[in-house]
Amino acid sequence: MAQVILKRIASGDKSAVQDCLKTYGGLIWSLARRMSPNPEEAEDAVQEIFIDIWKNAARFDETQASETTFVAMIARRRLIDRLRKINRQPNVDSLEDVLVEPTNDREQDLQVCVEAREAAAAMKNLRPEQRQILHLSIIQGFSHQEIADALKMPLGTVKTHARRGLIQVREFLGLGSDFEKEATV
Amino acid sequence: MKDLQDNRLVELLADQSFFGLSAEEGMELGQLKKRFPEWENDFSLELTAAAIGLANLDVREDLPANLRAQVYANADEFFSEGATDQEVFNFAPSANKTIVSPPGASVAETTSGFSFWQNLGWAFAAVAGIALAVNIWTTRFEKPSEVVKNPETIQMPKPELTTAQKRDELLASAKDAVQISLTNPKNEKEIVGDMVWSNEKQRGYARFRGLPANDAAKETYQVWIVDETQDSKTPISGGVFDVDGSGEIIVPINAQLAVKKPKAVAITKEKVGGVVVSKQENVVAIAKV
User: Fold this and answer.
1) Domain B165-288 carries which CATH code?
2) B181 forms bridges with which residues in the sheet?
3) Shortest Cα–Cα distance, B132 to chain A (Å)
4) Pick from A68, A85, A90, B235: most CB atoms within 10 A?
5) Angular region, B182: left φ>0, alpha ψ -120 to 50, beta rest
6) B222-255 tens-digit pLDDT
7) Is the domain defined by A95-182 classed in CATH 1.10.10.10?
8) In this predicted model, what pLDDT tens digit does every residue of B192-213 receive, in sequence order?
9) Which uninterrupted H or E stretch holds B182?
10) Do A116 and B153 touch (CB under 8 A)?
């Protein structure tokens, strides 16, 4: 049933709203809490995310990704937009302070979809600096400039590591078409 | 030339996936997509970033009941726009949103302007009450037979709780909830507040009495949770808050990462917006779990 929720929403089936909340409510709430400065912001963000989902449901293409990943993409867009408005400027002491590898002791239990599990596996195959930058950027929500400051690394280098790492994970997941993979960054 | 533009386009798409684009970059991406229409509907990098973001995401906690009700109300409004024969039903959920949403909530920004009739509807529904509103809405989403078979879908809405009530509710409902005293780090006998935390629900509240007001334009208070599974130099941020008076204040804890084995809590003063890693130069309260 999970894979047809967005199609039902796109066709105006209101009953799909309940299934959508039941299936993705916890996921969106978790993403919002992770990427919001406080619970009130997270609650506002969740409301906006669901409206974005209703609006974009018709754009879901099951040949590109799972519905879960598509919903997470919509959520990230909104959360990133809100983070940019906050314009947070962290105070990072040293490279050592941010060289924290995520703990994955419950990794297998926590993956919410196949692509998440594959992305976690792909991350392990990246170079350490790529993995660290992707973790800081995507999971912890830091901007490239913030990461560059934290790692005392040129901004261009951070961006290059991030892009190459992201493209490598994308290829591992089998997302994107051949002409994109040929592009060099 | 084409390769350069192609590379720039991928560069912008990647940047967009990480932390969004500035207005100028967004315009540049739009222009490049017009030039290379084959990229118009390519979301592969954003989808990849989303998949990475889902890795190890802890989704055990469901949406709070009041937030769920708001989302339902928003959905009803969204799906009913332009449907004149359903306007009467729109009053209820719209009113619900009005009551529980803070003024100027961003959701309002994402919807089109509200009409006189919608505003009138809010007023009627406010009188009718939240309970009736959500009940009406819920039944609209269920076939009659399903309503009878599945009574959990017609739950009475929970009234919006104050932060203090939410704290009490957590303390009463979470079996693993712990309550610890927050003390002055310079004098551990001086209790400045307490903290309630549930690992299972990943929620908690810090309560303070007499915490000095801070100048919100220059500094903020920030909560830190020291977790055994994290490097001790990088405790988990529990969010920032400001104090504008000398009375009791209760602050919801918003842990940025999953808290697994909390062993201590610290409250620091930091610059506006909070910091990623605290120098812990100005610790105002501590607690051991």
Assistant:
1) 2.60.40
2) B194
3) 19
4) B235
5) beta
6) 899 888 887 777 788 888 888 887 678 888 888 8
7) yes
8) 888 999 888 888 899 888 888 8
9) strand B178-184
10) no
